[in-house]
Amino acid sequence: RTGAMLTGVPDGNGAYLKSAEVVRLIYQSESYGPLTRQETFPFFVNEPEHVGFTGSHIHFIDLNRSLLANFLNDGAPASAEHMVIDSGEAVQKMYNLKRELVGKRGAASSSRPHHSNVNLAGEYIVIKTPSKADWLMQSLCSAHLAPAFQWGEGMGVQDDLFITNEEWISYESTAQGLIGLPAHVLDLARNELWAISAFGLGGFEKIVEVNTGTKDFVAFVPSGYNGAFGGNFPEIVAQRNGNFSRSDGGSYVWPENIVPTRLFLGKKGANKDGNSDNTAFLARNGFEFGALYGFATDCAAGTPGAEGRDNWHKNTATAGAKVTGAFYRLRWKDAPGTVKDFVHDAAWEFQDAPDGAPAGWCFWNANGKDASGAKTEHVSPDPRGGARVLQGSTAGYFGIYDFSEVTAKLASGALPASIPATYTCLQPESDITSMIDLGGAGQYADGQTAVVNPDQGQNPGKKTFEDVDGLEWLAAAGGEDYVVIHEDSGNDFGERKFLGRVGSPMKYYFVAMSGGTKNSRSLAKVSGVAGVMKSPNSHEFSGATDLSGLLARDASGAFRLAAGPQNGMGRKLAMEVPVGNKDIVVSLQAHSNWGGWTESFHSDAVGQLYIYRPSLPSS
After folding, report:
1. First-to-last CA distance in the chain?
2. What are φ and ψ of residue 86, in 5° steps?
3. Which residues, 6+ apart, have CB-to-CB distance to 595 below 8 Å?
4. What dihedral angle (degrees, nearest 10) is formed by the CA atoms of 261, 265, 271, 277?
5. DSSP bridge partners of 485
6. Beta strands of 449-607 (E only): which ranges?
7. Are 265 and 218 spatial neighbours (Cβ–Cβ below 8 Å)?
8. What is the pLDDT of residues 463-507, one digit of tens each?
């Protein structure tokens, strides 16, 4: 309809009001350029220099608001084509960590590089080089769209922004002077993408804004890998140990997945020195002057801290179990606009004792301070505006961190040394089969059902959640809370999607499954999109966005939310909508769909964006 080709596979998404009658949907493709599969066709930025990027793209799709609101109602057209107004690339300008417009890749080195691809000398160090572009935007994973003042009047970021991240990469094993992977913040009004180091450079799965309860500070919670760079880089580890010492006398190890839940607090309208700056985009929104924190707890023998996060959730935790601790400020400090060797990054500090914590406390990592554990996957903020965040894990558990004292701690105008916090387990790594309502669906080709997960073709399949990836916390009418749950497990018969009702016990409503190497549809080479099936492979449901606040109407049929700063109204309206009336955008990554015409047009694997309206049993 628009002439713009969109790329796959779709992952993180979000939506906001571009105008009173236009909903702009933002989504990113999780693509790997030359590293696997096929290079996507490039997008170009920083004209007239015409700098090309392959790999992941960020796209916009503009939708007629009235037609979108009626799309799932009886009598609406079956096709969504009629409500599409425009679509295309969402990024026009791109800045690197030095705040420079990214330039073209040089033959030997680059003076204005995309820092994710190079070392300190500007030399390209990714194991494969793009053939169609200057740079690789590697694996943009999940994302979070934060509209201006989403938590209340003057509360939250000051601009509509989309925060995304490169999650992993493969560097040459002998590479020196690694820099790492930043987060990227998209200024939606100006189509400008900024690389930032505020959260460190370990690569991320998802970063979300959480409410501080103040007008002067913002909070973000990053999750993810902490050093998934394609190896363990012993020479870089040796350099870390040569420059820094652990307080326990131990040696640093490669930091991948040695990381707790983190929290970033930033002062709005402040430059990197803390001085007033309400002009620059990053300063205005709190990314320049702040501090990074990690959750720590008592690690004496017999405590959850000593057991480690993964083992505690598997062997000890029950639903509702709590862990008392605090978020402690790291010694590491960001230096916005400068680029340092990864040896100096925040990623390593979680192997040391938290600064200022009681004796015997440690960061609550997945598997202690000396070994990698399960990856922290998606996070999602409290949709009711509390200083709380939902955190999941590939080990199949999830729970809520509550740091409500942050508002009082920020009252002085200074960044605190620590913030008391409590973690509550919603779902341990335990049997969920009796908690699942299949609704008469979920039949596997081998005779089992989707109450289990045969991620290696086993019969019986696993009775726990497996590799929980996507999580999105929803607030609904009647004080009900729900969690969108997506697995990324390699389920041979189809990856599962659930809607969980928060309670004691939890209740999981099966929504859908897709893909799988032994799925009968996949084996028959059936695809939801014609002409793209390559071979049976896994699929994955990914990002989720609740549209109900944007689409809420009053009794006269007029939309209730105005375009512009939300001042908390979007969140307020969403929590007034019953779950059965919510329209939710969901991404589907179809890793089987990279054949046929995709190999000519180079759009990578073809996925789909859905609008989903829950239909739950009345009981």
Report:
1. 43
2. -160, 160
3. 532, 533, 534, 535
4. 140
5. 471, 498
6. 468-475, 481-487, 495-501, 507-514, 539-546, 584-590
7. yes
8. 999 999 999 999 999 999 999 999 999 999 999 999 999 999 999
